[in-house]
Automatic annotation (TrEMBL):
Domain of life: Bacteria
Gene Ontology terms for molecular function: carbohydrate binding; hydrolase activity
Organism: Catellatospora citrea
Spans annotated as Disordered: 208-242
Keywords assigned: Hydrolase, Signal
Domain F5/8 type C: 823-937, 949-1091
InterPro entries, per the entry: 6-blade_b-propeller_TolB-like (IPR011042), CBM6 (IPR005084), Cellulose-bd_IV (IPR006584), FA58C (IPR000421), Galactose-bd-like_sf (IPR008979), Glc/Sorbosone_DH (IPR012938), Ig-like_fold (IPR013783), PKD/Chitinase_dom (IPR022409)
Residues covered by the CBM6 domain: 693-819
Protein's name in the database: Glycosyl hydrolase
PKD domain boundaries: 499-582
Length: 1091
C-alpha cells in the first residue's frame, strides 16, 4: 500500500504499466473526438468485479493483455513469496501464473509488472521485485508467458538490471514501470529513506554520522550517482542486456552520474505512465512527506504531487516540494537552519551530504503539475475533497478511439483529459487544460469522475484494449490481504447496466468431505431487473445449481473455485468466484498480551505475542509465527519492524507527525502452513489496531451534530464546535485496558455541560463523565479530568455524548487524553536504557549495514548481525559502573540457542549473570543481578538457522553504583512559562510519567527545582516528552541567581537523558536554548540525585 503523508504505505508499495497494452490493442486515432457538453453521470458507468478477497494477497499492480486477460501481482511475503496472478474472462476465474521467493521486508517484495510493447509476438513480461540476495538488491527481470498454460516460465528469467538497496528501515520502494513509443523502459525507484527520526515531517537530510543513513535522502534522491529516488529510462535489448537512449538527464560518460537517470529528485513516484501519442510525455503520482503544518524556519506543510515531464529534469526532493517551495538546509546536530535551498531558479541545490557519491552541484529544480497539501491546497482545492491523508497514484491521458468496436469504452467527453487517482482519498478525477492539450497546456479545472462510486483504496488503473478502465483496489489492510481488495472493470454503458454478483460461503477450507453452504445475498441489478442464479461449484463450466442459496459437498481434495453468475434477463450478467481449499485447514492465529484497540503512550514499550494452531501442523512453535508492526498515519502505514510470536517488543517512539494527523499502530500475527497434498498453503492471521493516549476530538468515525471548527490555538488547528444538547460522535474499536482517567481540553462561552463517554451506543454504559465548566470564551481552553469507571479489557465502540441545559452551543471540545498505563510500559529506571547510544563492539559483523551500533540505537527496525559461525559476542560500554538488574535482548530470526550475559569492570574479566542452552528467540527479558561497566551477550550455539546471531535491540537497565538519593521528589518548582492548561511545573517532580510540564512555544525556557538546602548533586535524569530540547544546560546555584553549568549539550535527541554530574547547590535548573519541535519544552520527570 502506498506510503504518503505518510504508504505506508502507505501503505505502501509499487509500480505500473499501461502504455504497453495500448500499443498492442487497436490502433488509436490521434485526432481528438468532438467533446461532449457535460460529463456523463455516474449512472452511465458500471463497476464490474473480476476478482476479490483475501485470496488476492496484497494487490499492487496490473497489466491487461491484448486478449482481455489480466495479470496482476501481490507484494507477497518473505516466507510465502509473491504471486503473479491471471484473471481469465473466458472462465471468470483466477489462477497463479508464477510465485517468486522474495525479501519482502517493509515495502519491498513483488512491486511491479509490465508487458513488453511487442507482447503479442514475444510474450515477454517484466517484473520488478526484491530477491533473496546478498548484498541486498532490487531487480527487474524478463519472463516469458505461456499462452497455452497461462503461466510465466520461471526458468525463462533473464535479469535485466539490479541495484543496491537498504532494508534496515522503512520506506519508499515505488516500483512502477512503463514504455514509450521507442520501446524504452521507464522504471520508478523510491528514495529508500525513512520519514521519521528528527525530520519532523520535513526534508529527511540528517547528515549526522551517528544516525542511520536511511534518514538522509541526499544519498538517494539527491544523488546523481544512484538509481534510487529516480525515474530511470533504459532500452532493453532482445539478448537481455540494455542500452542507454539519448536524451537522459546525464550523458553517458559523465563522471559521478548514472546514465540511466531520466528524472531525479523523486521521493516515492508510485505510478508512472508515458503518453505514446503525445511525444512520450511522462506523467506520475508522487507521494509526499508528512508535515501537517508549515514550520516557519524549516519548511512547508507536506505536498503530494501529480507531475508531468516532457524531458529529463530534477524534481527537487529532498530540497524542494510541490510548486518548487524550498526546505531549509537543516543542521540536525545544532538543531538550527543553515539557509533555504534554491528552488525554481537557474541553479539547483548543492548536495554536500557526506553520503553523496555523485555531483555536488545539482540541476535546476522543476515544480509539480498539480498538488495536494496538508491542511488544504489553496491552488487546487478540488484535490482536497474529500480531505485527509494524501497518496497520489496513477495519472493517464485517455484517448478516445471512435473506430474501436466496443460497448464498454469510455466516452468522447474524456478524450485527451488527464485521469488521476488517489489512494488515500478514494477518488478518480479529471484534469482539464487551458488549451485542451495535456502536454503544453496549463491545468485549469479538476472535476470528479464517477462521483459517488465506492472505491476502496485504488492502487493501480489502466485503460484496456476495449477502452474500459481496469482498476485494482488494495482494500483496507495494512501490509496484508483484505476481504475488500478487488480487481474491477469500470465500463461506460449507454443502455442498461450489468448486475453485480456477490457470493459468500460459510467455510472456504477443510478436509473432505467438505459441506459448504453458499449465499448470493447482496447480489443486485442497478436497473432493478429480476435476477436468476447459476452456480458452478467445480469450475467445469457446467451449472450445478440455480438456487439463490445452495449447498454443496466437495468429496475430492484440491483447490476449488465456486463461481456464481447472475443474469438480469436482458443478456447482461455478472460473475464472482470463491476459492475453496479441500484437504487443508487454515491455521488459527491470535495476537496475545494486548487487546484490539488498546491505548499506548508515545515512547512506551509494547510487547505483542502471537500463537498459531493448525489442524495438520499441530501447535506451532512461537518462533515460526511472524509478528509485524506498522506505524499508521491517516489511512496507510509504515512498517516499523517484525519479530516472532514468542514476544516482540517495540517502542512507539516519539509522535510521528503533527496533531492534525490520525496516528496509530497496527500489529499483525501470521503463520503460513505447509499445505497438504494437492492444496496450496494457507495463512492464518489476526490484526489489531492500537491508539495513542492523546486524541483530537475532530478525529471521529461518525459525527452526529457538531461541526469541525478551524482555530489556530486548537491542538492540530481544529476542534469540535457548535456542540448542542444530545449530539454525539463515535470512535471505533477501543479498549480501555489499563486506563484510569480521561482528560478533556474544552472551552465554553456559556455555562458548559456534560461530556459523557459511553460503550457501544449513546445510551450504553457510562465509563467516564466530565463536567465542562464555562471558561469565559470559545478560545479560552481548560483541561478537566474525570476517572474512568467500570472499564473492561474488551474492545468497544466509544461514544462521546454531549448534553447540557438551554439551547444553542454548549461548549467546544479540542482533544482528550487517556491517563494510565494502557497497553504500554515505560522501561525501568525512569525510562532509562543504559545501553542506548553507548559505544558497542562485536566479534564480527555480517557484510552490509547491520552494524553493532544498530542494537543500541533505540530503533526496533535496525539490527546487528554476525558472521555465520559460533561463538559470537556483542559488548556495550555503559560509560560507568552500574548495578545491572535487567537485560532485554530482542532477537531477530537468527537467535541464540545457547548464550550467556556477562558483566565486567574492565572489558577483560567477565562474570556471568545469566546463561541458557534452550533459547527460543523473540524477546528475552531477563531479571539479573550484577555490577560492571561493560555488558556482553556471548553466544555459543545458534538456534535453528544457518545464519549468524542477530539482535534488533540490546537494552540494559540498572542504577549507579554510587547509590545516590533522589532529592527532588515533590520539592518546589518554578519555570519561565507554562503552556495554557494543566501541564504545570510541579508535574516534573511528582513521580508520575503520565503528567508533565510544558512551556510556551519560544526559546529560551527554564525550569528550576528547589532542594531546600545545599546538596552535592551527582546525577540528573530528564524524561522528555515529544517536545524535547536539542540544546540545554544543567545548572546549579546556591541563591537562584548565580548559576554554574555542570552539564550541557547541543545534540539532545529526546527520550531519557541520564546525566552523571558533579556540583553542589540548593537550586538545580534546566536551561533550554534550542527546541527540537515547533512546540515548547516538555518534561515528564526531572529527577535530581545526590547527597
Amino acid at each position: 500500500m502506498p506510503r504518503s503523508t505518510r504508504p505506508r504505505l502507505a501503505a505502501g508499495l509499487a509500480l505500473m504499466m499501461l502504455a504497453s497494452v495500448a500499443a498492442t490493442a487497436v490502433t488509436v486515432v490521434a485526432d481528438p473526438a468532438p467533446a461532449a457538453a457535460a460529463p456523463p453521470p455516474t449512472s452511465s458507468f458500471e463497476k464490474v468485479k473480476l476478482d476479490g478477497g483475501l485470496s488476492m494477497g496484497e494487490p499492487i499492480e496490473l497489466s491487461v493483455l491484448p486478449d482481455g486477460k489480466v495479470l496482476y501481482i501481490n507484494r507477497g511475503t518473505s516466507s510465502g513469496g509473491g504471486q503473479v496472478r491471471l484473471y481469465n474472462p473466458a472462465t471468470s476465474s483466477t489462477t497463479v501464473a508464477l510465485t517468486l521467493q522474495l525479501d519482502a521486508r517493509f515495502e519491498d517484495g513483488l512491486i511491479g509488472i509490465t508487458l513488453h510493447p511487442q507482447f503479442a509476438t514475444n510474450r515477454w513480461v517484466y517484473l520488478f521485485y526484491s530477491p533473496v540476495a546478498t548484498p541486498l538488491v532490487n531487480r527487474i527481470s524478463r519472463f516469458t508467458f505461456n499462452t497455452s498454460t497461462n503461466v510465466l516460465d520461471a526458468a525463462s528469467e533473464t535479469k535485466l538490471i539490479e541495484w543496491p538497496t537498504e532494508r534496515r528501515l522503512c520506506c519508499h520502494s515505488a516500483g512502477s514501470m512503463t514504455w514509450d513509443s521507442n520501446n524504452n523502459l521507464y522504471f520508478a525507484v523510491g528514495d529508500n529513506t525513512n520519514s521519521g527520526g528528527d525530520s519532523a515531517g520535513m526534508a529527511p537530510i540528517d547528515e549526522r554520522t551517528s544516525r542511520d543513513a536511511q534518514y538522509d535522502a541526499q544519498r538517494t534522491s539527491g544523488n546523481t550517482n544512484d538509481l534510487r529516488g529516480k525515474i530511470n529510462r533504459i532500452h532493453p535489448e532482445n539478448n537481455g542486456t540494455y542500452t542507454i537512449p539519448t536524451g537522459n538527464l546525464f550523458p553517458v560518460g559523465t563522471a559521478n552520474t548514472r546514465p540511466e537517470i531520466y528524472t531525479m529528485g523523486n521521493r516515492n513516484p508510485y505510478r508512472i505512465w508515458v503518453d505514446k501519442q503525445a511525444n512520450n510525455t511522462l506523467y506520475w503520482g508522487e507521494v509526499g512527506p508528512d508535515a501537517g503544518a508549515t514550520i516557519a524556519n524549516r519548511g512547508p506543510a507536506a505536498y503530494d504531487e501529480y507531475n508531468r515531464a516532457t524531458g529529463p529534469g530534477n524534481y527537487g526532493w529532498p530540497y524542494c516540494g510541490g510548486p518548487n517551495v524550498a526546505y531549509n538546509d537543516w543542521d540536525f546536530a545544532a538543531n538550527a537552519p543553515r539557509g533555504w535551498f534554491p528552488c525554481g531558479g537557474s541553479t539547483g541545490p548543492v548536495n554536500n551530504s557526506p553520503r553523496n557519491t555523485g555531483l555536488q552541484q545539482l540541476p535546476p529544480t522543476k515544480g509539480a503539475l498539480v498538488w495536494e497539501q496538508h491542511g488544504g491546497s489553496r491552488e487546487w482545492p478540488a484535490l482536497d475533497n474529500p480531505g485527509g491523508c494524501g497518496s497520489p497514484n496513477h495519472a493517464e491521458v485517455y484517448h478516445y478511439n471512435p473506430n474501436l468496436n466496443s460497448t464498454v469504452k469510455w466516452p468522447a467527453y474524456y478524450d485527451n483529459k488527464l485521469i488521476i487517482t488517489e489512494y488515500c482519498r478514494n477518488w478518480i478525477k479529471e484534469v482539464q487544460f487551458d488549451n485542451g492539450n495535456p502536454v503544453t497546456g496549463n491545468p485549469t479545472i479538476i472535476e470528479p469522475v464517477v462521483s459517488g462510486m465506492q472505491l476502496v483504496h485504488p492502487i493501480d488503473m489502466e485503460f484496456g484494449p476495449d477502452g474500459s478502465l481496469y482498476l485494482l483496489e488494495y482494500g483496507n489492510g495494512y501490509f496484508s490481504g483484505d476481504a475488500a481488495a478487488g480487481l474491477y472493470k469500470i465500463n461506460y454503458v449507454a443502455g442498461g447496466r450489468s448486475p453485480t454478483a456477490v457470493a459468500t460461503a460459510n467455510r472456504d477450507n477443510g478436509l473432505a468431505p467438505l459441506a459448504v453452504t453458499f449465499s448470493s445475498a447482496g447480489s443486485s441489478d442497478p436497473d432493478g431487473d429480476p435476477l436468476t442464479y447459476a452456480w458452478d461449484f467445480d469450475s467445469n463450466g457446467t451449472t450445478d445449481s440455480t438456487a439463490a442459496n445452495p449447498s454443496y459437498t466437495y468429496t475430492t481434495v484440491g483447490d476449488k473455485r465456486a463461481r456464481l453468475t447472475v443474469n438480469d434477463g436482458t443478456g447482461r450478467s455478472g460473475s464472482v468466484q470463491i476459492p475453496i481449499v479441500v484437504g487443508n485447514n487454515r491455521p488459527v492465529t491470535t495476537v496475545g498480551s494486548i487487546p484490539n484497540g488498546g491505548i499506548y503512550g508515545w515512547g512506551d514499550n509494547v510487547t505483542a505475542t502471537a500463537a498459531s494452531t493448525d489442524a495438520q501442523d499441530g501447535t506451532i512453535a512461537c518462533g515460526n509465527v511472524v509478528v509485524r508492526v506498522a506505524l499508521g498515519h491517516q489511512e496507510h502505514a509504515h512498517e516499523e519492524g517484525q519479530g516472532t510470536g514468542c514476544g516482540f517488543t517495540f517502542n512507539t517512539g516519539p509522535i510521528h507527525a503533527g496533531l492534525d494527523a490520525v496516528q496509530f499502530f497496527v500489529v499483525r500475527g501470521s503463520y503460513t502452513d505447509s499445505g497438504a497434498a494437492g492444496t496450496v498453503p494457507l495463512t492464518g492471521e489476526q490484526q489489531l489496531t492500537l491508539w495513542p493516549k492523546q486524541w483530537q476530538a475532530e478525529h471521529y468515525v461518525t459525527l452526529n451534530g457538531p461541526k469541525v471548527v478551524d482555530q489556530a490555538a486548537a491542538e492540530g488547528g481544529k476542534r469540535l464546535g457548535d456542540i448542542q444538547n444530545g449530539e454525539s460522535v463515535r470512535h471505533h474499536g477501543v479498549s480501555l485496558k489499563g486506563i484510569t482517567s480521561v482528560k478533556a481540553r474544552v472551552s465554553s462561552a456559556g455555562t458548559g455541560g456534560v461530556l459523557s463517554f459511553r460503550y457501544d451506543s449513546t445510551t450504553g454504559p457510562e465509563v467516564a463523565r466530565i463536567i465542562v465548566p464555562g471558561t469565559g470564551g470559545w478560545d479560552n481552553y481548560t483541561e478537566v479530568t474525570a476517572p474512568v469507571t467500570r472499564p473492561d479489557d474488551g474492545t468497544h465502540d466509544l461514544y462521546l455524548v454531549f448534553t447540557g441545559t438551554g439551547t444553542g452551543a454548549l461548549y467546544d471540545v479540542d482533544s482528550y487524553t487517556f491517563v494510565g498505563g494502557g497497553v504500554g510500559s515505560t522501561p525501568p529506571g525512569g525510562g532509562q536504557d543504559l545501553a542506548q547510544g553507548r559505544p558497542v563492539t562485536a566479534s564480527s559483523t555480517e557484510a552490509g549495514a547491520n552494524v553493532a551500533g544498530n542494537a543500541v540505537d533505540g530503533n526496533a527496525a535496525t539490527r546487528w548481525s554476525s558472521l555465520y559461525a559460533d561463538p559470537q559476542w556483542i559488548t556495550v560500554d555503559l560509560g560507568a559502573s552500574y548495578n545491572v538488574n535487567r537485560v532485554r535482548i530482542n532477537w531477530e530470526a537468527a537467535f541464540g540457542r545457547a548464550y550467556r550475559v556477562e558483566v565486567s569492570p574492565d572489558n577483560s574479566a567477565w562474570t556471568s549473570i545469566f546463561s541458557t542452552t534452550t533459547g527460543d528467540g523473540g524477546a528475552d527479558d531477563l531479571n539479573v543481578t550484577g555490577t560492571g561497566r561493560y555488558v556482553r551477550v556471548y553466544g555459543t550455539q545458534r538456534g535453528l538457522t544457518q545464519y549468524g546471531y542477530s539482535l534488533w535491540d540490546l537494552n540494559v537497565y540498572g542504577s549507579p553504583v554510587s547509590g545516590a538519593t533522589l532529592l527532588s521528589r515533590n520539592r518546589p518548582v518554578t519555570a519561565s512559562s507554562t503552556e495554557a492548561g494543566a501541564n504545570v511545573p510541579a508535574n516534573v517532580v511528582d513521580g508520575s510519567t503520565t503528567t508533565r510540564w510544558s512551556s510556551l512555544y519560544a526559546d529560551p525556557q527554564w525550569i528550576t527545582v528547589d532542594l531546600g538546602q545545599t546538596r552535592n548533586v551527582s546525577r540528573v535524569v530528564l524524561n522528555w516528552e515529544t517536545a524535547y530540547a536539542t540544546a540545554y544546560q544543567v545548572q546549579v546555584s546556591n541563591d537562584n541567581s548565580s548559576w554554574t553549568t555542570v552539564s550541557s549539550t547541543t545534540t539532545g535527541n529526546g527520550g531519557v537523558d541520564d546525566l552523571a554530574v558533579s556540583g553542589s547547590g540548593r537550586y538545580v535548573r534546566i536551561n533550554g536554548t534550542a527546541r527540537a519541535t515547533q512546540w515548547g519544552y516538555s518534561l515528564w520527570e526531572f529527577d535530581v540525585y545526590g547527597s
